[in-house]
Each structure stands twice: as C-alpha cells, then as structure tokens.
Design goal:
single chain; about 375 residues; alpha/beta; 10-stranded mixed β-sheet; 12 helices; globular
C-alpha cells in the first residue's frame, strides 16, 4: 500500500524576522503547496495560528499593519521586575495579535498544529499539539506560551506548569517533523544561517557583537544546520529550506524585536524571492540529475552491446543545502555545512519531550 502523503511545514522562530515566513508561504500557496501540519516555534506559533485562521491574506494583513515596540514595552503594576517575573506584561501584545486569530476555527480546522514550548517547571522542551487541548481556550493558552519571551514577558501557566517561548529549546524542530511521519518537509527559517565574512575585529565590543551574531545564527538554526541532507533529503524525506540571505543576519535588539510596516513589507518580499529562487535552483538540479542519469543509462547500454561488464555508478549528486535562499552543494559551505555533521537521531512519533542530546531517548510529557 502506498504511503499516505503528509506535508509538514516548519515555521522557525526569529521574532520580527517572522515576516519572511509570509512571503515564502505566499509563493508556496501559489504553487498549490499547502500544509497538512504546521510545526511552529516562537514567531512561528503566531504565524501558524494566523495562517490557519485565514491563510496568506490574513498573514499579509496582520504584518502590513503590525508595529511591535509599542506592544512589547507595556509597563504593568504586577508584571515588572519588582513584583513579578518579567519586564513587561504580554497583554497588549497578545490582544493585538489575537485580532487576526480565530481560535475556535483553527481548533476545528483540518490543519494540524504543533507548538514547541519550554517547560520551565520541568526544565525541558516539550511539544504540544492541537490534539492535546481540551478546547480552543487551551489552544489559545499554549499559543501564548509559544511566544512568551523570557525576561520580557511572564511565563504562561498551563496545567500547573510554567511555560515560555520554545525557540530557546528547539527552534527548528526538523527531527520532530520526521517523527510525525512527514513525506515532505518545508522548512521556513527566518534566521539566516550564513554570516558575512569578518577577518578581524576592531575592538572588544566588535568581538562581542560577532560572538552574539554567531550564537544567534547557531541556536536559531540548530535543528537543521548540522543535519546531513543528501540530494535535498533527510532520511529519505524531501526537505525544502527557505531562509533569508546574509543581509538579514546578525543579532541586535532593534533588528530582532522591532517590527514596523515598511520593514515587514521588505521581509515579506524577500521571503517570496527566496522561495522562488530555491525552487528555480532545485529545478535546475533535478534537470541536471536527470541528464546525468540518462547519460549513465546510455553508457551502460553501450557497454552491454559491446559485451563488456558495465561499471557500477554511485549516486554522485551533490548534497543540497540552502545558502541565502539559493540551493548550493553543501561542500561549498565549509565547516558549518550539512555534509560535515553527524546525523541526528529521529524522535518517535509519539514523543513529547524535546531532547538535544542524541544519546538520550525521548520520554513522554
């Protein structure tokens, strides 16, 4: 029996850079590529809920009007460092976001939703899905936990435990998508995995900034940066990675947290271009592979006609990775490329606990 097709979208975290998701989703939508399941982390949780509420048009409307700073910097009598456990209240941010989200609708929709959360009470990352919620109100609660950035906002209470943004545990949960039984994976990573080359550092602050840039890029892409993908596949499953170029790389508070209409539009346009470029590059690679395969078949046929034993040909197609929205051989990426890393163990489909230690089996939450 043929395996049932299951298309999984991963929407990685990246705060204000999440507008890049919108352009990529728009291009995928135009190609008729729609998700069966969306796995969201941080801003990916918000975009997943908004997409499930009204598709790409809903996302475009939300981001075209959104300004983050007035909603983040929200002083509160109790939610402050003196009386509470955060700098600000999340009420203003949640209220503005949820104007574009219809939780009763997405609770009943066909699209599966999976959120990456960090359970502070138990000290581990956990995955919660729509199926784990008794009703749409619980779905709303875990969605809020998904973007409750530690220190900025207070943790969210759910079933007696305290939860915060899961991007700090597992921002790009590629393994989890495999565990869901995905037959296709579309990974939308708003944090660029490539940084501009920097040969020297002019000062100590310059060195610190570079270190922060590297850590932001590494933590933000941990789930796939070191995954071994051969010919665009991981464990036989096709993976399409769409990410911004290095012009959107690096960490800075205003760069990461400050969203406003003109910046959002630029990121949405970049997401569309990057998705289009990835598909064009993939098409060229597929055509190249078909040409090589045809030539190999012709050579084998000629050898057989001459009575010679055909030489066995190994598949020498390049490992496929993504560099600034373009598909390139991973061997060109140097020490950080996918081809240099050991494969990561895939979780069981029923696993709930996120573990970054390959040797430790996952338990259930």
């Amino acid at each position: 029996m043929a395996r049932k097709q299951k298309r999984v979208f991963i929407l990685g975290g990246g705060a204000a850079l999440g507008a890049h998701h919108v352009g990529a989703l728009k291009f995928l939508d135009e190609q008729g590529i729609k998700p069966d399941v969306i796995v969201g982390s941080s801003i990916g949780v918000i975009n997943a809920c908004c997409y499930a509420s009204g598709g790409v048009p809903q996302l475009e409307q939300a981001w075209s009007e959104f300004r983050s700073i007035p909603r983040i910097f929200s002083p509160h009598l109790w939610h402050n460092p003196i009386f509470g456990r955060s700098l600000f209240s999340m009420d203003r941010l949640s209220g503005s976001i949820e104007e574009y989200i219809d939780f009763p609708k997405i609770f009943e929709s066909r699209i599966g939703l999976e959120f990456i959360l960090l359970n502070l009470s138990r000290g581990r990352g956990e995955v919660y899905s729509k199926r784990d919620c008794a009703d749409w109100r619980e779905l709303r609660t875990i969605s809020r936990a998904g973007y409750a950035i530690p220190f900025l906002f207070p943790p969210i209470q759910f079933r007696g435990d305290s939860f915060v943004d899961g991007g700090f545990a597992w921002n790009i949960p590629l393994e989890h998508a495999l565990g869901l039984g995905a037959t296709e994976i579309y990974l939308l990573a708003p944090i660029a995995s490539q940084l501009p080359y920097k040969g020297r550092f002019g000062s100590f602050p310059d060195f610190i900034q570079r270190f922060l840039d590297v850590m932001w890029r590494t933590i933000g892409n941990m789930g796939y940066l070191y995954a071994r993908m051969e010919s665009g596949r991981l464990n036989g499953v096709p993976v399409t990675v769409i990410e911004p170029g290095e012009q959107y790389s690096g960490f800075g508070p205003l760069h990461v947290f400050n969203a406003y209409p003109s910046k959002n539009r630029n990121l949405m346009e970049a997401g569309y271009r990057d998705a289009k470029r990835v598909f064009a590059a993939r098409k060229r690679l597929e055509e190249h592979a078909r040409t090589r395969g045809s030539r190999a078949e012709i050579g084998i046929g000629a050898a057989r006609r001459r009575g010679r034993r055909p030489v066995e040909l190994r598949d020498m197609r390049p490992v496929v990775a993504v560099d600034g929205g373009a598909v390139v051989p991973a061997t060109a990426r140097g020490a950080t490329g996918a081809s240099d890393a050991a494969p990561l163990g895939a979780p069981t489909s029923g696993g709930k606990v996120v573990s970054l230690r390959v040797t430790e089996p996952r338990g259930r939450s």
